[in-house]
Write a structure and sequence with these properties.
The complex is a heterodimer.
Chain A lengths: L4 E3 L2 E5 L4 E6 L6 E7 L5 E8 L4 E4 L2 E6 L4 E6 L8 E7 L8 E2 L3 E6 L1
Parallel strand pairs in A: 2-11
Antiparallel strand pairs in A: 1-3, 3-8, 4-5, 4-9, 6-7, 7-8, 9-10, 9-11
Chain B lengths: L3 E3 L3 E4 L5 E7 L5 E8 L3 E10 L2 E4 L6 E7 L2 E6 L8 E8 L8 E2 L3 E5 L1
Parallel strand pairs in B: 2-11
Antiparallel strand pairs in B: 1-3, 3-8, 4-5, 4-9, 5-6, 7-8, 9-10, 9-11
The chains are: A mainly beta, B mainly beta.
Chain lengths: 111, 113
Amino acid sequence: SQQGEEDPQALSIQEGENATMNCSYKTSINNLQWYRQNSGRGLVHLILIRSNEREKHSGRLRVTLDTSKKSSSLLITASRAADTASYFCATDEGSNYQLIWGAGTKLIIKP
Amino acid sequence: DVKVTQSSRYLVKRTGEKVFLECVQDMDHENMFWYRQDPGLGLRLIYFSYDVKMKEKGDIPEGYSVSREKKERFSLILESASTNQTSMYLCASSLMQVQETQYFGPGTRLLVL
């Protein structure tokens, strides 16, 4: 079942600007993951953040997790054209055998 | 790097045909998954396997079956393809825990006419 929700559904920004997208979930989690999907391709794992972590960095990516608000955000700094993709969050909420995926945020970086 | 390969990038089949989608991973991962992805619906789990010859139904198993005879290979079978099975099919694998990082193949875009 799909329970994660990304916000916004679509985002268009100028190259060089920062992009922020959000993910909300409904119950408790052990971890939350972010993935990127370039057009028509498979997904690529970006970051996994555990429920006892508040912030995690990887290069130009910063992920925060607020378990009290049941939400996470993905920040991409100094965006590039190559960041154009769909971004998905996935959690383990409510299940012990599968990830629960959101519908994704489509990010377009304009040159 | 983990590599997950899928047998075809694009497939066109006719209604009623039996369709085989193959997935191979090269990192000795325990778990393998088949998803379908449709616009606006995100990823939906069809089946997953946590060991050779072991399988579990996901959210949408109807019309599909799977086979895992070897650890590195996980096949998805559409017994009698229908137009509503036109979709992008994604295979993934994970090392130990089902809900840890998953590694995806490039996807197979299937069109059923």
